[in-house]
Design brief:
241 residues; alpha/beta; nine-stranded mixed sheet; 24% strand
Length: 241
Amino acid sequence: MKPIIGITTFREKREKGEYNAINYSYADAVIQAGGIPLFIPIMSDNLALEMLESEAIDGIIFSGGEDVAPRYYGEDPILQVVGTDTKRDEMEFKILEEACRRKIPVLGICRGHQLINVAFDGTLYQDIDSQVQSAMGHHPNAINRDELYHSVNIKKDSILHDIFETEKIYVNSFHHQGVKKLGKGLKATAFSCEGVVEAFEAIDMEERFILGIQWHPENLINRYPEFLGIFKKFVDRTKER
């Protein structure tokens, strides 16, 4: 059987009620990589843990979305924090903790990348534009999600270098926050030109697969197939488990 990959969702208020939503590109990436996507609604911590205890999920993708609440890394929000959802934060922190305990492979994308860093005792720039010296563009308006936007430099000794086989790539970008202090047990493996951490991985990747990506590879796979390699590497590790 193909591995089942859980994908977290976000809450969206509409005229007719509240919805759990997610960009379908995440599911498409999992399917093309050889997995079966399963969207995870926002629910109580206990139900989330029961889901993992059932061993029905082989890997988890923490998806993009709203800002992680700054109180989880000991700060008050600045003006540029535009929205948080602590119900989602708390559920995802619990899922991540249990996934790591069970050595379930984890992939964090954009917000998911930031959430993993905070969970490992890291901190975030609440707004790159105002808090990073000489900040370049990271969140353009009116641009397609499959457009390559800025460069990323990749360290040789990393999963990303194994995937792309180069030290420089171009990526899309839709984030105004980023890693400030790197979390414990993680190593940064890719950076933007001004030094913003664009990717990290666990220092013990042979023991547990934890990969954080700041850009959105799920939106690039059909136009730039090399980005599917991220999801293939992830799904392959779930098969090994």
